[in-house]
Design goal:
By secondary structure, this protein is α/β, with parallel strands linked by helices. The chain has one domain: Metallo-dependent phosphatases (Purple Acid Phosphatase, chain A, domain 2, 4-Layer Sandwich), CATH 3.60.21.10. The chain has 10 helices and 16 strands. The strands form 3 sheets. Strands 1, 2, 3, 13, 14, 15 and 16 form a 7-stranded mixed beta sheet that branches. The longest helix has 15 residues. It starts with 18 loop residues before the first helix and ends with a strand. The N terminus is likely disordered. It binds zinc ion. Zinc ion binds next to loops. The site of zinc ion has 6 residues, from loops.
Amino acid sequence: MAKSIGRTETRPGAPPAKWPVLCYWLPPLHDIEAQPVRNWTTLGSGVWFVVTVCVAAALVGTGCNAAVAKTDEASFTLVVLPDTQYYARQYPDILAAQVDWIARERNRAGIALVAHEGDIVDADDPAQWQRAASSLHGLDGVVPVLLSAGNHDYRREGRHIDRETSINQYFWPTPVGGTVEDTGTFEPGRLENSYLLLSAPGGPWLVVSLEFGPRDAALAWAEALLDRYSGVPAILVTHAYLDADGSRYDHVGHPGQLWNPHRYFAAGAPGGVNDGQEIWDKLVSRHDNLRFVLCGHALDDGTGRLTSRRPDGTVVQEILANFQTAALGGGGYLRLMRFSPARRTVAVQTYSPYLDRWKRDPDNEFTVRY
Ligand SMILES: [Zn+2]
């Protein structure tokens, strides 16, 4: 669910501001009748005409989506994969369906990047890594991928995890080339803390992945990176940041939060552990080029968001998605973030290629500004 705190703003359920985006993201025809009436009536009679034309075009098979993609060349899409752990453990066809759809829609949807929010696997087990790798490597050479390591991706000893993981035996950073202008990692050969500098319509974006409950040194590395690219808008992806009520994980201010990263590591874990509030204090609040924080991990309904304003007035959109508690380990729902640089908006939608269904509620379909 969406929440706001202090001097913040949220705009749940706001419709896209311009008709081409709306038209582009028209749902499959069998879902059109389920559209909330309020989304349409606010758009004015002119837009009614355009929507009618688009639907009519789709009905006669002329391909409304393809036509609109040509008129909206300045936008691009970030695909966000929430926790896939149960697909790697039990439902490999669902992850395969997600990857196949991304590869198939890459050009038409203008997919510039796929970001995984962590918990790629349910356990640091070769069979699960192999299943995840066999699907996700289907995107090699198709679209850049940035992975984030979740708590389930690490080795577990009893109640605790450590920083050992097999992730680097199965995955490696996307190399420089194509739309990837620069890439790097905090530690050589380890992608748990890594980044991509991505060329995209409207200008480059820096996308940074931080390990689960990042160590102090990982935050310092990210800090130097954000300083180096201080003029470039940036997105941070890290597995645990927001709880499902839209508040940051905060082991001091909210000690009752069940899934705070501090609970997963033994006391005195080498290098320290930072939860969402600590990541905010030490990193996000200090770099005005950070526009988004994306995370998974939290349970309940697995959605949450927070819009936070820094003391200098700049804004960060913090967005949680994790559908693992739903049927079929999440049913294959992924997030589509359609960036429109000219309007500085992102239209977020939630779609399952496996089920061919959209989540249309305000927690799963909304537009934010950046
Ligand atoms: Zn997790």
